[in-house]
Amino acid sequence: MAIGLIVLGRTGFLYQQAVDANQELLLAADTNYVVKLLDRFLVYIGFFKHQTTLGLVLILYALIEGAEGVGLALRRRWAEYLIVFATGLLIPYEVWEVIHKVTLLRVGGLLLNVAIVAYLAYKKRLFVDL
Fold first, then answer.
1. What local confidence, expressed as pLDDT, does residue 108 receive?
2. CA 28, chain centre distance (Å)
3. In the chain, which stretches have pLDDT less than 50?
4. Measured between alpha carbons, how far is 30 from 19 in angstroms, rounded to an integer?
5. What element of type H or E holds 51?
6. Of 24, 23, 18, nearest to 43 (Cα)?
7. Angle of helix 13-25 versus helix 2-11 axis, rounded to 10
8. Could you give the residue ranges of the DSSP H alpha helices within 12-50?
9. With b meaning 16 or more CB within 10 Å and e meaning fewer, what string describes 71-85?
10. Which phi and psi (to 5°) does residue 76 adopt?
Protein backbone atom coordinates (compact mmCIF):
# COMPACT_ATOMS: atom_id res chain seq x y z
CA MET A 1 0.00 0.00 0.00
CA ALA A 2 2.80 2.40 0.90
CA ILE A 3 4.72 1.78 -2.30
CA GLY A 4 1.49 2.13 -4.28
CA LEU A 5 0.85 5.54 -2.71
CA ILE A 6 4.35 6.71 -3.53
CA VAL A 7 4.32 5.40 -7.11
CA LEU A 8 0.79 6.57 -7.95
CA GLY A 9 1.46 9.97 -6.42
CA ARG A 10 4.62 10.45 -8.47
CA THR A 11 3.16 9.33 -11.79
CA GLY A 12 0.15 11.63 -11.61
CA PHE A 13 -2.28 8.71 -11.82
CA LEU A 14 -4.43 10.08 -9.00
CA TYR A 15 -4.52 13.52 -10.58
CA GLN A 16 -5.61 12.03 -13.88
CA GLN A 17 -8.37 10.10 -12.10
CA ALA A 18 -9.58 13.34 -10.49
CA VAL A 19 -9.61 15.11 -13.87
CA ASP A 20 -11.46 12.21 -15.48
CA ALA A 21 -14.03 12.20 -12.67
CA ASN A 22 -14.44 15.95 -13.12
CA GLN A 23 -15.16 15.50 -16.82
CA GLU A 24 -17.40 12.46 -16.32
CA LEU A 25 -19.52 14.21 -13.71
CA LEU A 26 -19.59 17.46 -15.70
CA LEU A 27 -18.67 19.39 -12.60
CA ALA A 28 -17.69 22.51 -14.55
CA ALA A 29 -21.22 22.82 -16.04
CA ASP A 30 -22.81 24.01 -12.79
CA THR A 31 -21.80 26.75 -10.38
CA ASN A 32 -23.53 25.16 -7.39
CA TYR A 33 -21.58 25.47 -4.11
CA VAL A 34 -21.76 21.73 -3.36
CA VAL A 35 -20.54 20.91 -6.85
CA LYS A 36 -17.64 23.35 -6.47
CA LEU A 37 -16.68 21.69 -3.18
CA LEU A 38 -16.81 18.26 -4.79
CA ASP A 39 -14.67 19.55 -7.66
CA ARG A 40 -12.09 20.99 -5.26
CA PHE A 41 -12.06 17.74 -3.30
CA LEU A 42 -11.43 15.67 -6.44
CA VAL A 43 -8.62 17.98 -7.54
CA TYR A 44 -7.16 17.94 -4.00
CA ILE A 45 -7.03 14.16 -4.07
CA GLY A 46 -5.10 14.35 -7.33
CA PHE A 47 -2.61 16.85 -5.89
CA PHE A 48 -2.31 15.19 -2.50
CA LYS A 49 1.18 16.19 -1.33
CA HIS A 50 1.32 13.89 1.67
CA GLN A 51 1.24 10.63 -0.25
CA THR A 52 4.98 10.20 -0.09
CA THR A 53 5.03 10.96 3.63
CA LEU A 54 2.16 8.57 4.26
CA GLY A 55 3.88 5.86 2.23
CA LEU A 56 7.15 6.29 4.13
CA VAL A 57 5.34 6.19 7.48
CA LEU A 58 3.64 2.95 6.43
CA ILE A 59 6.98 1.46 5.42
CA LEU A 60 8.52 2.53 8.75
CA TYR A 61 5.59 1.02 10.65
CA ALA A 62 5.98 -2.24 8.71
CA LEU A 63 9.69 -2.31 9.58
CA ILE A 64 8.92 -1.77 13.27
CA GLU A 65 6.34 -4.55 13.23
CA GLY A 66 8.80 -6.82 11.44
CA ALA A 67 11.50 -6.05 13.99
CA GLU A 68 9.04 -6.84 16.78
CA GLY A 69 8.21 -10.18 15.19
CA VAL A 70 11.85 -11.15 14.69
CA GLY A 71 12.78 -9.99 18.19
CA LEU A 72 9.96 -11.94 19.79
CA ALA A 73 10.78 -15.04 17.75
CA LEU A 74 14.38 -14.82 19.00
CA ARG A 75 13.10 -14.10 22.54
CA ARG A 76 14.97 -10.79 22.83
CA ARG A 77 14.23 -8.41 25.69
CA TRP A 78 14.42 -5.33 23.46
CA ALA A 79 11.46 -6.62 21.45
CA GLU A 80 9.26 -6.47 24.55
CA TYR A 81 10.27 -2.85 25.11
CA LEU A 82 9.62 -2.11 21.45
CA ILE A 83 6.10 -3.55 21.68
CA VAL A 84 5.25 -1.37 24.69
CA PHE A 85 6.72 1.68 22.93
CA ALA A 86 4.89 1.03 19.65
CA THR A 87 1.61 0.34 21.45
CA GLY A 88 1.92 3.48 23.55
CA LEU A 89 2.95 5.64 20.62
CA LEU A 90 -0.64 6.53 19.77
CA ILE A 91 -1.69 7.48 23.31
CA PRO A 92 -0.85 11.20 22.90
CA TYR A 93 -2.90 11.34 19.70
CA GLU A 94 -5.80 9.59 21.42
CA VAL A 95 -5.60 12.07 24.33
CA TRP A 96 -5.72 14.93 21.84
CA GLU A 97 -8.76 13.36 20.15
CA VAL A 98 -10.55 12.98 23.49
CA ILE A 99 -9.76 16.59 24.41
CA HIS A 100 -10.93 17.78 20.99
CA LYS A 101 -14.26 15.94 21.16
CA VAL A 102 -15.30 13.65 23.97
CA THR A 103 -17.22 10.58 22.87
CA LEU A 104 -17.74 7.28 24.60
CA LEU A 105 -15.89 5.43 21.82
CA ARG A 106 -12.83 7.70 22.00
CA VAL A 107 -12.61 7.54 25.78
CA GLY A 108 -13.04 3.76 25.65
CA GLY A 109 -10.30 3.42 23.04
CA LEU A 110 -7.94 5.58 25.08
CA LEU A 111 -8.61 3.65 28.28
CA LEU A 112 -8.21 0.34 26.48
CA ASN A 113 -4.87 1.40 24.96
CA VAL A 114 -3.57 2.67 28.32
CA ALA A 115 -4.69 -0.57 29.96
CA ILE A 116 -2.93 -2.67 27.32
CA VAL A 117 0.33 -0.72 27.69
CA ALA A 118 0.14 -0.94 31.49
CA TYR A 119 -0.59 -4.66 31.32
CA LEU A 120 2.29 -5.35 28.95
CA ALA A 121 4.72 -3.33 31.04
CA TYR A 122 3.57 -4.93 34.31
CA LYS A 123 3.28 -8.51 33.09
CA LYS A 124 6.74 -8.53 31.52
CA ARG A 125 8.25 -6.49 34.38
CA LEU A 126 9.84 -4.19 31.83
CA PHE A 127 10.45 -1.07 33.88
CA VAL A 128 11.11 -2.62 37.31
CA ASP A 129 14.90 -2.21 37.30
CA LEU A 130 14.93 1.36 36.02
1. 92
2. 33
3. none
4. 16
5. helix 51-73
6. 18
7. 70
8. 13-25, 33-46
9. beeeeeeebbbbbbe
10. -95, 140
* DSSP reduced 3-state for 5: helix
Backbone angles phi, psi at 65, to 5 degrees: -65, -40
How far is Cα 115 from Cα 87, in angstroms, rounded to an integer?
11
Provide the phi-psi class of 31: left if phi over 0, else alpha when psi is between -120 and 50, else beta: alpha
CA 70, CA 80: separation in Å to the nearest integer?
Answer: 11
Give the per-residue pLDDT at 69: 92
How confident is the model over 47-84, as pLDDT tens digits? 555 666 667 778 888 999 999 999 989 989 888 889 88
* Cα 57 to chain centroid, rounded: 8
This prediction has a pTM of 0.54
Q: 3-state secondary structure string, 59-128?
A: HHHHHHHHHHHHHHHCCCHHHHHHHHHHHHCCHHHHHHHHHHCCCHHHHHHHHHHHHHHHHHHHHCCCCC
Confidence at residue 121, expressed as pLDDT on a 0 to 100 scale: 85
Amino acid at 100: H
For the chain, what's the residue count? 130
